[in-house]
Amino acid sequence: MIDGPVLDVHLLDLLNNLRNIGVQGVALNGQRLIYKSAITPDGLQIKLDGNVITPPYRFDAVGDPDLLVTSLEREGGLLEQLIQTFPEVEVAITKKDNLTLPAYQNEITFEYAQVAAD
After folding, report:
1. Cα(34)–Cα(20) distance, rounded to whole angstroms?
2. Is the pTM of this model over 0.85?
3. Out of 3, 4, 60, 96, which could bridge 27 as a Cys pair, Cβ 3.0 to 4.6 Å?
4. 101 CB contacts (<8 Å, ≥6 apart)?
5. Residue 116 within any structural domain of the chain
């Protein structure tokens, strides 16, 4: 959980960090993220796949919980840099034994994919 005024690039960096750790799935503020999910600025707001999201920003990630915590809390890591840059931002990491991610809510369309012939 990140609570405070951060930029879209900070959330994107954290998402990329989670993907590099090797999570099996991730959601941000209750919205499932997929390969084409976009975290973008919109004036002073942040949008996720076109929907405005507001603090606190909560990432839910499925993966090895010990590896996730160790990687995110490492000295000099992304979260430490965020806290040093923005002292007013609150950051918390919570391990859970059981986590269910929401399904992706938007439509997935394929521009070039075609059904294979039998």
Report:
1. 14
2. yes
3. 60
4. 25, 26, 27, 32, 60, 62
5. no
Question: Residue 111's pLDDT is what?
Answer: 84
Find all residues with CB under 8 Å of 4, minimum gap 6, and list them.
55, 86, 88, 89, 90
Q: What's the total number of domains in the chain?
A: 1
Q: Give the pLDDT of residue 38.
A: 93
Residue 97 within a domain = no
Q: Tell the residue number behind the tokens 């391990």, with chain if given.
A: 95
- CATH number for position 68: 3.30.70.1880
SS3 95: coil
62 and 25 Cβ atoms separated by less than 8 Å: yes
Q: Which domain holds residue 34?
A: 2-91
